[in-house]
Amino acid sequence: MSYLSFAREMLGNLFKPPATSQYPFKPRKVYEADRGKVVNDINNCIFCGMCMRNCPSAAITVDRNARTWKINRFACVQCKECVTNCPKKCLQMETEYTAPDTKKTEEVLQGPPPPPKPQIVLTEAQKAAIAAAQAKKAAASKAAADGTPHA
Ligand code: SF4
Ligand code: SF4
Predict the structure, then answer these.
(1) N- or C-end of the chain: fewer Cβ atoms within 10 A?
(2) Is the pTM of this model over 0.90?
């Protein structure tokens, strides 16, 4: 590089604004497609585990029985696979980054209790049909055990 071009480069750099920003002292520019952190609307989660199975870094743990959804944000690589594969669309990728921390903690979300199962009310005819079917099955089992043919 000649002295002339070196001096031109140096003077240009002296008067240009810095290429980097002063984050976190100055707010960073947020873009719509920024991948910040995964959030879950736990009230719509059905604990199917699709997000857990599709996570390449095993950052998500779903416990269907306990109805908990857990994420290790320090393991998450912001690939968005969980968001894409959630059948209930309750996962979103926020543009905000995870806050720095001194400890590697996991975030646990507790889902609401499951809705009560609908009560099935049988008519008398249905009850009689079920009883007849059970009696027939019991007779068939007894005949098979005795070694006698049955109708
Ligand atoms: S894929 Fe969606 S609905 Fe299924 S467990 Fe994950 S967050 Fe819940
Ligand atoms: S964004 Fe990727 S790495 Fe992070 S939890 Fe979802 S699937 Fe896992």
Answers:
(1) C
(2) no
